[in-house]
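Lab notebook, bench 4. The sequencing result for the construct came back, and we need a structural model before the next group meeting so we can plan mutations. Quick request posted to the team channel:

Model the 3D structure of this chain.
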Amino acid sequence: MFESPVQEGWRYWIRWQVPVCGLTIAIPCVFAVKFIRKSMAEPLLLSDLWATHWRHLSPLWLLLYRAFAFVCCVQLLYEIVALHGPFVFFFYTQWTMALVAIYFALGTIVSAYGFWYPSRKTQSKNEEDVKLMEKPLKNNGDRVKVDTIKVQNKYAEQEFQEKAGYLGTLMQMTYLAAAGASVLTDVVFWCLLVPFLLGENFQVSLLIGSIHALNAVFLLGDTALNSLSFPLGGFAYFVAFGGLYIAFQWTVHMCCVNWWPYPFLELSTPWAPLWYIGLAVIHVPCYGIYALIVKTKYSLLPRLFPHAFVRSF
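Done. Here's the predicted structure in token form:
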């Protein structure tokens, strides 16, 4: 039986396993942060965040879907906190659900902005422009005016496709991180914990099952509707999120907590480095699974719905 970090004090943190495990997590996180700082400088169009790939589907439906998913995620978090207290946020599952809720909150805001603001801003002007262009041209002055209107409309369209800014970038980051985190959470729960630990001391209630399923279900529904890209480089956000969770666990154990929510986080066992290496490696297939789903979306849906699904804009 290994002693807890609180019982051993500072001696717990001078084991040889600690720096090895720390470097196993820190090195990927350093590269992830460098990539994130570089990627934030790349342009991101607002239409990529709120538009859909479905030809006859109004972006309003994506807005409503994101608002509904946000409310459901918050409700699930509220119910589990009300039942077990804030202690549940020691678990990665609640971190994942909170991240999914943040994504849908940002997505709702951005979708609302993309749906309402540009259309209201240009609607009245475009109606006047169309009426003028429908009139017969009487002289060169009218022709020049029409050409000017076309140029103005071009600039209006460019403005409509303006850069998303920090809010849109944050939305994209949470989307990529939440996708990988949801796969990791659900695969570990349904493929490892439920088959091997289900018994008198571990039962799956409707609430627990919902939290370990609806996070991915809501994201997959959003993926089927949205126009967001899913680059392989987005893996950096997933890595940074995992590193943040490990840093949180280590910090609270240094201060007062004498219990690990997951046995593989224990540092006093000689097998700790292997567990941490495995924890780092498993992020790759989890992110890859979701990337494969997105790739399948762009290859399969155009064949199934050739007249409804637009592969690219």
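The radius of gyration is 25 Å.
Will bring this to the meeting.
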